[in-house]
From TrEMBL:
This is Uncharacterized protein. It comes from the Eukaryota.
């Protein structure tokens, strides 16, 4: 995890708070906070009171969760591959890849289905989704540069490693490559998955009138649920079922279960991702559930949802007509124990 920072006294703004950060980080955070206060005349005293309450606890806790930005441009931390790695938000890439692989396996009915066409089809889906994933996370960073200077100062756009122009070039290129690959593959399920994801995630992030849906907690959660739980599960299953295998578009029980389970899981993603970002979200007016309800309450809501989802999964597995499915589902937790470190 990222190192903790030490809190000292210093910056005075009707009450003073100051975080001992490296010089470049401290300057960016203070400037973004000042510009926000100056640009919002309404509710000025409320914002000052909020900053006063944050003095040490709020800002320190937010920044302490983040990886400090290395100001040395010659550092390996600032290499191009490392910057792109952080820009791509690898945990989202891994999650998307595993989701596509798992739902693709639901279309497999017999051992002979593990053919060359199957692996090519899965590879095409993963690459197209990877390109779209870079567009989505990149657009989100372009729209949240000032917020990320507080919440995630290690990201390339927030740290200044990437310019805004570089970010725009990257997201435009990857969006084009995603649609290009989806078109030449010729799979309509893939193409529509990319197109709908593009529309929803653009509306979620981009800061123009009537959009930037991430400002509204319920709408933001519905966007994430629609993409992660419904589009990914159904579209990429249909890609293998109809395009690769040429079978009818049927939705068996496992696909319905996967969609339902991932609906719970996607809500947890939508809630959990905002827990460490409460400080920046408060400053810039993002009304996430964490801002509304508090970090502790949202955390335990997420735990409850995961318990419900896994409890239902155990019941579904235990009621399966397949003997091997019942045994593996019931004892699957033991497979996770060696992974806990």
């Amino acid at each position: 995890m990222c190192p903790f920072v030490t809190v000292h006294c210093g910056f005075r703004l009707i009450g003073c708070y100051h975080v001992s950060l490296r010089a470049s980080q401290r300057k960016r955070i203070i400037q973004s906070q000042l510009s926000f206060v100056r640009s919002n005349s309404g509710g000025f005293s409320e914002k000052i009171l909020f900053y006063h309450k944050l003095k040490t606890k709020g800002v320190a806790s937010a920044v302490s969760e983040q990886q400090p930005v290395d100001p040395d441009p010659t550092s390996p931390q600032h290499s191009l591959p490392n910057a792109f790695y952080r820009f791509s938000r690898p945990h989202t890439v891994i999650g998307t890849t595993l989701s596509i692989v798992s739902v693709s396996l639901l279309a497999v009915q017999k051992l002979s289905d593990f053919s060359r066409l199957f692996f090519i089809g899965v590879f095409e889906a993963i690459v197209a989704a990877f390109f779209m994933n870079i567009y989505i996370v990149g657009l989100n960073q372009l729209s949240d540069i000032e917020i990320n200077k507080v919440n995630k100062p290690y990201l390339p756009l927030a740290s200044g490693e990437y310019s805004v122009k570089t970010g725009i070039i990257i997201v435009s290129l990857f969006a084009f490559m995603s649609f290009w690959l989806g078109w030449i593959v010729g799979s309509w399920p893939i193409f529509w998955a990319l197109f709908i994801s593009f529309l929803l995630e653009t509306a979620y992030s981009i800061n123009i009138p009537m959009l930037r849906w991430k400002r509204f907690a319920l709408v933001a959660a519905m966007c994430i649920l629609a993409v992660r739980a419904i589009i990914v599960q159904i579209a990429f299953y249909l890609h293998i079922q109809t395009f690769v295998y040429g079978r009818l578009a049927v939705f068996p029980k496992p696909v319905i279960f996967a969609t339902g389970f991932m609906s719970f899981f996607s809500v947890v993603i939508a809630l959990f991702k905002d827990i460490p970002d409460i400080v920046g979200d408060k400053i810039f007016g993002i009304q996430s559930f964490t801002v509304r309800l508090g970090q502790k309450r949202v955390f335990w809501i997420c735990i409850l949802l995961l318990e419900v989802a896994n409890g239902v999964a155990i019941l579904v597995g235990a009621s399966s007509p397949s003997l091997w499915s019942r045994y593996i589902t019931f004892y699957a937790e033991y497979l996770l124990i060696p992974l806990v470190r």
